[in-house]
Specification:
Layout (H helix, E strand, L loop, with lengths): L1 E5 L3 H18 L4 E6 L5 H9 L8 E6 L5 H9 L1 H6 L3 E5 L5 H8 L4 E4 L14 H8 L3 H13 L4 H18 L6 H19 L5 H9 L3
Parallel strand pairs: 1-4, 1-5, 2-3, 3-4
Length: 217
């Protein structure tokens, strides 16, 4: 079953999606959780998302993060929409600023659609945890490290912080940056993906990995 989170208010859309994930995990502690970034989307990954389960884990909770950042991953997702919609697993599709055509196509397959748009008068207002993404955008390692620790201390989920940082890297790839070159922004995105994968394989704790990442930029 698909749960779609979209809207022009990027920060609020991301925040609400991760809050939904946190509540679902608290309600069902044995629910296995996986976050898939756009770079990780393949036909095999999406088929697993639709079909995976097991003896001890009957259902999965899968967050597909910004799949339409790249045309290839977006096309793959659309090809697998029916299978994802028919799955017993909870599939969260987090895709801010999705076009109306794409929204309509996914909405007809979704169990629930959550939309978070900015009122026109508030388009330039700073959103949730803007200090974190601004620190990364400014390449300010000390401030980024401080904001990561502040967010963790306030109880923010490490997956949410990682997702927000990765979104910012992808945003700089698409829209440019005065501080990061396009090549550096792409390397930043890949570094964050590698960091997450290493943590999943039993490497360094994700929160510690984020701190180390902050001091390396």
């Amino acid at each position: 079953m698909i749960y779609l989170f979209h809207g022009s208010d990027v920060e609020k859309t991301r925040t609400k999606a991760f809050e939904w994930v946190a509540k679902a995990r608290a309600k069902e502690p044995n629910l296995a959780y996986v976050r898939l970034a756009s770079e990780e989307l393949t036909s095999a990954a999406l088929e697993d998302a639709a079909l995976s389960g097991g003896l001890f884990v009957k259902r999965l909770l899968i967050l597909i993060d910004d799949p339409f950042q790249e045309e290839i991953s977006g096309d793959l997702l659309e090809e697998h929409l029916s299978a994802l919609a028919d799955s017993d697993n909870a599939i969260i599709i987090l895709t801010p600023k999705l076009t109306a055509v794409k929204v309509k196509k996914i909405s007809v397959k979704a169990k629930m659609v959550y939309t978070y748009d900015k009122p026109p008068a508030l388009e330039d207002k700073r959103g949730f945890n803007r200090n974190l993404v601004d620190a990364l955008g400014a390449r300010n390692r000390e401030k980024l490290w401080l904001e990561i620790n502040r967010a963790l201390r306030d109880g923010d989920a490490t997956e949410m912080l990682h997702g927000l940082l990765h979104w910012k890297a992808r945003d700089m790839m698409s829209n440019g940056s005065r501080v990061w070159t396009p090549q550096e922004s792409r390397a930043l995105s890949l570094s964050l993906i590698s960091l997450l994968q290493s943590s999943r394989r039993g490497g360094m704790n994700l929160s510690l990995s984020l701190e180390k990442f902050a001091l390396s930029i």
